Amino acid sequence: MDEDGAMQFLASHGHQKTGNDVIFSWLARYQQAAAAGADAVNGTVGALLNDDGTLAINAVVDTAIRQAPAPEFAAYAPLKGLPSFLDLAVTLALGEHRPTLEAMGVNTGATATPGGSGALYLAASNFAERGDAVLLRDRYWGPYTGFLRGCGLGITTYPLLPSEDQPATPLLDLRAFEQRLEEMVNQQSTVMTWLNDPAHNPTGLSLPPESRFALLNAFMESATRSEHTGHTLLIDAAYHLYADEPHGWAETIAEALDAGLPWPENLLIVFAISLSKSHTIYGLRTGALVCLHPDASNIARLEDVMGVTGRQTWSAAPRVAQHVLSELHATEAGGTAWSEERDRLAALLTARRSTFITACERLGVGVNPSHDGFFAWYECENPAAIAEACADQHVYLVPLTGGVRIGLCAVPESKVERVAQALARAVEAVK
C-alpha cells in the first residue's frame, strides 16, 4: 500500500498538499553551496538584504518596536484589529488620495490580518463561490494557488504582456482580460481578479496610468452589464511602497470617478496590505484587507464578515506592530523618519535594478520589463534548465512557471553583473 493509501486519517483534500516550496528549496541549495565555501550568489529569497547579505531593517521601525510597552507585546488585539491601525491601513492603501476618494463618497473599512497572506485568505474565503475560478495574470506568486485551492477555487489566466497591436494599454493585455472576464460572467455568479500591482512578484512590472484606467474601466463596465454578478477587484499591494507610484491605484480610482464612471453596487475594490516589506517586520505578520465601496452599510457588513472569518481561522492578528506603527505614523516626525529609512532601502533596489537591466542589455539577455519592487524576470520555456545552468556557476535563482525569478532584493550590487553574466551563459548553454 502506498503512503497516502495507508493514511486513512488524512482527509482526501489533505492528500493534495504535497511537495516542497520551490523558493525555499532553491534557497537551501544556495545555503549548502555557501556553507561548503563556494562564492555563491543568492537570488532566491523574497526579503530585502543589505549588500553584506544581512537582512535590511528599517531602523526607525526597529527602535519603535523595541520600545513598546510589555502589554502591547503580550495582549490580544481586537478581533478586527486596533482601530488606530485600521485607520493607518486605509491610509497606506490610498495615500494622499484618501481625502479625495472619501469626498467623492467612497466608504472604506479594514480588517487586520497576519500579513498580506492573511488578507489574501480573507478574500479567497469570502468573495467567490466555491467552485468558481479567480482571474490572474499568467505569471503570479506561486502561493496564490494554495490560497485559492484551499478555499475551493480554481484559476483562470490572461497573458502578463500584450501583443504588439495594443499600444493604447502598454503592459496590459486588455483584450484577453476582457475576454476572460466575459467568460467568467457567463459561467459564474461571482467574479474576482487578483492583481499584484505595482511592483509585481515575480517580474517587478508596474502598470502605467493609462493601463490601470483601462483595466478599471473594463471591470466597472462588466459589473454594470451584469448587475447580478458580484465583481471584486483585489489589488495585492505587498510591494507598493517601494514603487515610483505607490498609490497609483487610488489615483486611478479617483480619476475614474471624476470622469463620471459609475460605481456599480455589485463592484467591490479591496487592497491586500502587507507591512512585512514596507516596514521590514516580516516575522511579526502584520497586514490588512482594506475594502472600498460607495455604500457604508456594505462596508460595515464586510467588516463583520472579515472579523468572523479571522476569528475562525487565526483568532486575532498580532498586536504589537499594529500599536507601534499606528503610533509611529500618527506624528509627522514619525512618518517622515520612517519614509526616509524606506527611501534608503528603496535606493538599494533601484541601484541593483538599474545595474541589472543595463548589464542584460549589453549581454543580450532579454529580461522582461521590470520597474519596481524586489524582483526581475527572465521569460523562457525551460526555466529549470536555465536555473540549473546558473547554479552550475553558483548563481542561485528560482525557476517558476514560464520563467526564472531573479531576487534583486537579495543580490549585492557588486554581484548583480555576475547574475546577468550567468544568465547569458545559461541561455547559450541550453539552446
CATH topology of the largest domain: Aspartate Aminotransferase, domain 2
β-strand percent reads 5-15%
| Tally of discrete structural domains | 2
Low-confidence stretches: none
**What is the overall number of helices?**
17
In the sheet with the most strands, the strands line up as 2-8-7-6-5
CATH architecture of the largest domain: 3-Layer(aba) Sandwich
Radius of gyration: 22 Å
How many E-type strands? 12
- CATH domain class name of the largest domain: Alpha Beta
Derived from helix and strand composition plus strand pairing, the structural class reads alpha/beta
Protein model, in words:
With 431 residues, this protein is an alpha/beta fold. It has 2 domains: 3-58 and 336-429, Aspartate Aminotransferase, domain 1 (Alpha-Beta Complex), CATH 3.90.1150; 76-318, Type I PLP-dependent aspartate aminotransferase-like (Major domain) (Aspartate Aminotransferase, domain 2), CATH 3.40.640.10. Helices cover 46% and strands 14% of the residues. It contains 17 helices and 12 strands. The protein has helices at 3-6, 22-35, 59-66, 70-74, 83-94, 98-103, 115-126, 143-150, 174-187, 209-225, 248-258, 275-278, 296-311, 320-329, 332-363, 383-391, 413-429, and strands spanning 41-42, 107-113, 133-137, 154-158, 190-196, 230-236, 267-274, 287-293, 376-379, 395-396, 398-400, 403-406. The strands form 4 sheets. A 5-stranded mixed β-sheet has the order 2-8-7-6-5, sandwiched between helices. Strands 9-12-11 form a 3-stranded antiparallel β-sheet. Helix 5 packs across helix 14, helix 15 packs parallel to helix 17 (413-429) and helix 16 packs across helix 17. It is globular. It starts with a helix and ends with a helix. The relative contact order is 0.17. The mean pLDDT is 96.
